[in-house]
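Standup notes, protein team

Yesterday: finished cleaning the Catharus fuscescens set.
Today: SCO2 protein structure.
Blockers: none.

Input for SCO2 protein:
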Amino acid sequence: LRHRLAVASAVAAVASAGWLYLRHQKEQQQRARRLRHLRELSLGQGDFELRDTSGTPRRKADLLGRWVLLYFGFTHCPDVCPEELQKLSRAVELLERDPALPPVQPVFVTVDPERDDEAALARYLRDFHPRLLGLTGTPEQVREAAAKFRVYVSAGPRDADGDYVVDHSVLTFLLDPDGILRDCYGRSRTAEELARSVRAHMDTYEAL
């Protein structure tokens, strides 16, 4: 009887181990399919070519290997863009408090290249996170970059002084080290919520 029980227990253990192995394999395959799907459908998947505040050409490919929080806006924005950049900067600072976490690169892409040249961006970004990377380019380059992220951009009419506002999508995008869009955040999200979300994505991240 004891022998039969031992054999039955051994068989059950083997069956259980086999089931766990198959389950693990299935989960890995599902995760791989999901990541391939994200790569195929991800917003912002295409590359772009812009310039930083020193005039150095920058591509999306240059950001690979780092987590990125990216926001499209313009320096003449009266309130929304400053608020969003303050929030983005605060979220990065919260994440920097944990030295075990990989660094996050904050990025600001202008949607108003006519007024936001390298010098204007450099002056404007001094008020935010010291590592905030500002990017500009020709109107065509900026339009292409915005389109890659499906960001809506529309310049309004000019006033008597030639001034105008630019209507645009208010979203902050999170890219993982593979350049895949992992999340996007609207105005209602707080800096603390952004930081928690980024940390959660870091905890579950598996490189492609």
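Follow-up from PR in the comments: The chain has two domains: 1-41, 49-204.
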